[in-house]
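re: ur question from earlier - yeah i can do the single chain one, its not a big deal. heres the input i used so u can compare w yours
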Amino acid sequence: FCCCNLSAPTSNLLPDVLDQRHASVILKAIKDLVVELEEFGIHLGLSNAIIQEIKVNAPHEIRTRRKDIIIAWLETGTATRSGLISALEDVERVDIAAEVKELPTV
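and the output i got, formated as tokens:
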């Protein structure tokens, strides 16, 4: 029995389990993710087919592709804050990963 679990968590950081309500906050945090975007999608667990479909649908619109990748990932039902941080670290964007670690709740 641990006394530290008696009260409700007071953390106002982004929760670990993510859904579409968090898309706006995530998109603001990853706004500088450009070159690494497709690889980032793979590290999030999206299939190459989904990423290529997103690319074909918006070939010259990086903001749209970034949004579509995040929405597709959030729709998987397996999106987590730790997964997002890990994917950012995998594409060597520790700067953005550090920012995501401090994101507030929606």
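The radius of gyration is 15 Å. not sure if urs matches, ping me
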